[in-house]
Amino acid sequence: MPNIEEKSQVVAEIKEKFQQSTGVVLADYRGLTVAEVTKLRTQLRQAGVEYKVLKNTLVRRAAQEVGVEGLETYLEGPTALAFSKDPVAPAKILMDFAKANKLKNFAIKAGVLEGKVIGPEGVKELADLPSREVLLAMVLRGMQAPLAGMANVLQGPIRKMGYALEEVRKLKEAQ
To answer: Keyword set for this entry (predicted)?
Structure first.
């Protein structure tokens, strides 16, 4: 049985993870095989997400000390936490993993987004958001559209002049 100092050290580590993360997802990992957990951890690690199975009482204490309120109701049964600086990555990876492997027992319990608790529906909505790269591409496309339109408008008179000259050439040939 770990002593009080070891537990307080673990609580301090969990607090630090909460403070450094903008996105945290809580999941019930029951029913996963060792191979599935290994595969999931690999996917999360590649995205820079830290995945830990922690005691609910220690997570509850750390959350209270950091000021995250409303998480207590979700800390029932086995709980794994995915911590990330990217708020969307853990939600997206865990949801995609559950869908891809058709896991019935694996469930998203809740999430913490920049210090605020969101339910499983909120985590699903977060997972459905496009990735950062896609959002940046959409912004760039939006910025380029007016410029492309302006270039098209400016080319119009030049194009018409070319058509007119071509018609004059055809008339001259016909004569």
So the answer is: Ribonucleoprotein, Ribosomal protein, RNA-binding, rRNA-binding
